[in-house]
Amino acid sequence: LLRTPDGPRIVRTGREVPWGAAASQAYLTGGDDRVWFCRSLVARGGANACLPFDPATRSWGFDRIDRARAALTDASWLSTASGPARCGLLADRATCSVITDRGWRAPKRAHGARPGDPLSRAFVPTDRGIGFCRVVEGRAACTELGGQGVWHRDVVRGQGLQHGRWIARPSGLSLCPVGGGECRTVAAQSDPTPAV
After folding, report:
1. Contact yes or no for 126/147 (Cβ under 8 A)
2. What are the pLDDT digits (tens) for 160-182?
3. How far apart are CA 90 and CA 94, in angstroms?
4. Which of 12, 28, 136, 170 places its Cα 20 to 30 Å from the Cα of 35?
């Protein structure tokens, strides 16, 4: 449904589009004005697929389908500056596949980044890429996937931290307590260095 000067208008694809797994469906934005309908295609072994819509021309493009990959745990879709991304854990390592103008970028896995408390994990879009944050043994930890597809070293701060909400602020990746209170910046804009 698109709001136009003449009122709401439904814009259909004009062709059949596979819906994919219901729990995997998401509408996302990227670094341009397009809106993407993304999901995992069960018939293609769980491959990621994103269909672009251009509001300026009121037209749908064609699916961009990734090759089938190993199933991720804690998987989620993110809107990033590069394009839609599918992130999750693969063998306890964070990994993300990102769609770009050249197609799907092969997933990179974070080396040496412990998965942490399952209830504290979050993938967060940042100005420079994607952050993977969680609480590890009471300490906040974040690592960031930069624009070149390289994971940076873990940044670990604080002690005895409780769960909260992870956000990207101008100062960096931050953990904000549930119910209010001061947010703690974990990975500042100048912190990340590429992992060896």
Report:
1. no
2. 777 789 999 988 999 998 877 88
3. 6
4. 170
